Amino acid sequence: MSASRIGLDSLRAKVMSAEDAATLIDPGSTVGMSGFTGSGYPKAVPMALASRIEAEHAAGNPFRLRVWTGASTGPELDGALAKADGIEFRLPYNSDPIARDKINRGEMDYFDMHLSQVAPMAWQGFLGPLDTAIIEVSGIRPDGSLIPSSSVGNNKTWIDRASKVILEVNRWQNPALEGMHDIYYGTALPPNRVPIPLVRPDDRIGEAYFRCDPAKVVAVVETDSPDRNLPFDAPGEDHRAIAGHLLEFFRHEVARGRLPASLLPLQSGVGNIANAVMSGLVDGPFDNLTAYTEVLQDGMLELMEAGKLLTASATAFSLSPQAAAALNADMARFRDRLVLRPQEISNHPEVIRRLGCIAMNGMIEADIHGAVNSTHLMGSRIQNGIGGSGDFARNAYVSIFMAPSTAKGGKISTIVPKAPHVDHINQDVQILVTEQGLADLRGLSPRQRAEVIIENCSHPDYRPALKDYLARARRDSYGQQSPTLLNEAFAWHQRFVETGDMRG
Amino acid sequence: MSASRIGLDSLRAKVMSAEDAATLIDPGSTVGMSGFTGSGYPKAVPMALASRIEAEHAAGNPFRLRVWTGASTGPELDGALAKADGIEFRLPYNSDPIARDKINRGEMDYFDMHLSQVAPMAWQGFLGPLDTAIIEVSGIRPDGSLIPSSSVGNNKTWIDRASKVILEVNRWQNPALEGMHDIYYGTALPPNRVPIPLVRPDDRIGEAYFRCDPAKVVAVVETDSPDRNLPFDAPGEDHRAIAGHLLEFFRHEVARGRLPASLLPLQSGVGNIANAVMSGLVDGPFDNLTAYTEVLQDGMLELMEAGKLLTASATAFSLSPQAAAALNADMARFRDRLVLRPQEISNHPEVIRRLGCIAMNGMIEADIHGAVNSTHLMGSRIQNGIGGSGDFARNAYVSIFMAPSTAKGGKISTIVPKAPHVDHINQDVQILVTEQGLADLRGLSPRQRAEVIIENCSHPDYRPALKDYLARARRDSYGQQSPTLLNEAFAWHQRFVETGDMRG
């Protein structure tokens, strides 16, 4: 079985244990790993590397790495390496709880980047040299090309840019993945860039495999390990209410002639609300849907099984164990309707603007003027990262952000006087949705936005206080374009930090 | 002379006074005007409209308009209409002082938009219907097509979308402008968008004229009036220092192989610093430069005259009276090296990313984590608007923001603990420059950025206080990804509002 996954003799000769492979990585070096939303990340070498780092630390030797990935990985990578205190610097996205704690204690430097910009900036040399790529693949072909795994992410760029390559060949990955991927090799550094020839979400513009010079491969490690595949909670009442408001909005836009009857390519962030929206679309009036998104979740596959979604393009899967099993059982059928691309293309501003994606992303909070914080709790503690939300929100046909109107059992309001960290400026936020309702902010001034947001989206427990703040800001603010009271803009957040509750 | 500028009989028959034309505009309607950075805006009809509005107001009749433009116009448009209290809602950019005061007193609603998004959102129907277009042209051809004026802006879209069109034919505009423009007619609504076939800054992908159905033209008004053409101040010492740091950075990047020897297409914001940078490039080591920018200023023409700049693409001129005279004297020679395009194309994310522009924009302030405020003084009072800075900053090869390290004679620090309004999130800010120095933020975490920004860019009068703030934030912040002290983040701004000085 393993032999069939490694089709090239010269690479079969480089098969070794994860422990041996881990010795090929130098302290202080930069490692580019595969992995996106818990899919397709290397599972053996990072664990072995973490053990090696712990041993070196125990022996009094410093050993930390700079770690680049596609996006989030799994406990065997970010968790293990962070626990071993083996990561000095991390980009472009993390959702691992151990790494998050290290970052928020100031023990690990972390730069969350627009996901579309990682590969170009690596090519431009802005991020420094890349020493080693550690890439999970689902197979190696006789010509040395690589069959990608369940995510593509930045793998093409890591393989091309790294001085040496370590491959994990994971036989857990379904061999029928072969042919699903579309690896575009037409990117270049300016002034040699040309249009990306993609005009439909399911266009295939590249190759099904990664090119890889076998001479650069220093180790091949065989694995048989599942992706992270966390279970999704069933959508709650709030999530279903948000989905309901959004579907009503789509119906309204189609009726007004501002959206085609089959909508436009859907982009959907990761999480339960996104899944609830997809579930809502299963029963909705919209047919012949398409998706051009970052991640394929359970809801997207459900929508496809229901015959509503024709095709979907992404850079990775992020499935529950049940959905992963269902997909694996029927991969050949899904393969022709799904495309996995490099994240540089799945998230490319050019393509998103051209296709006119409907961007649907979650948020931590929005302020009364419509600026959105997607990343930092209380303005300083990072949760995950900006991910691809900026790529999509700024270039979308319509940019939607959604969340329940409160968090922590009502102790946090999602609508606040001022966002203490801004990921999406108000120009990039056209629609806000909470379970309370939907605010259509298109073409409104900040003062107009404030009224609509408070009225339609805020929780009744916080609405009077927001109205009071706005009324006083409209009286006392230094300027009236975006009324603000500087000395109490963050009072709610400060109160939460001090008492655990934003309410007075 | 005037006859020669109106080549179509049926439109010559519609020549009338500005006063008569102004009667064709209804109270409460939406008017799309030409005009971008004080160039090519209508000069007679808005003045007549303002008089009419004043008379109606004196008679007790309400009369206000929704006014859309390309960007800023001139006193005859924004100034006159704002003074008459004739603008209810304004987009996408304003720099008129009278209109600014109305906005900041809460008497006029204003939505500053990404300039690339105005035309698409108008087509998408998100901004409401457009009743009348008032467009300055430099001539009407026998076939009814229109020779554009000194700016293109959103004129194509206003002409196409408006129910009726009023033309101002301005004989002050140089007839040799004819042939300089490139009006692209290949845009569409999704799902019918295709790649924009522009791969070099000077590619011509459209037509030299606006198409216009003569049946939609309800009035033609002849004018002979100069553009705003404000004089530029000579660059001060701080501006020259900023330019010096930036040129040193370019040399360094070329030496490291991260920029070609002829750099990449330059985008430059409007103002004295931008002009100082262009002047610096005149004496610099870089040849065969190109520009893909929004506005052509004095410095850009100077660079062209010096033989350093080969070609430049923009959507408008913004020249001093001297530079305008020099350009007019030699227009035929410049015409083949300059291209004026619709702002949808000059600022298009697809094209900016493809060309790899070097984006250089001014700012009001930056915070220690690198978030930039370009628009709101003290977080609430708008100065001008975001303009095209977001289009360029997010999609640039490298995004640079610059300003002197203090303003108001030292009473305001440009580097602050936290920006009270964010136009450019830290991911979109790679380089910060003040006269103190340059901070290269590429690939740094927020904590690392804070150290470099304070050290390299802040003014020595404020540096100790910034270091003290950062040290305490690194001790007391809720999270350490982006250390922040919520209860004093805006203390400097609050102090300025109360005392007129950020210093204690």
UniProtKB/TrEMBL annotation, chains A, B:
The keyword Ligase does not apply. InterPro entries: AcetylCoA_hyd_C, AcetylCoA_hyd_C_sf, ActCoA_hydro, ActCoA_hydro_N, NagB/RpiA_transferase-like, Succinate_CoA_transferase. Residues 13-222 form the Acetyl-CoA hydrolase/transferase N-terminal domain. Signal peptide: none annotated. Residues 334-469 form the Acetyl-CoA hydrolase/transferase C-terminal domain. Keywords: Hydrolase. GO terms for molecular function: hydrolase activity. Belongs to the acetyl-CoA hydrolase/transferase family. This is Acetyl-CoA hydrolase/transferase family protein. It comes from Caulobacter segnis.
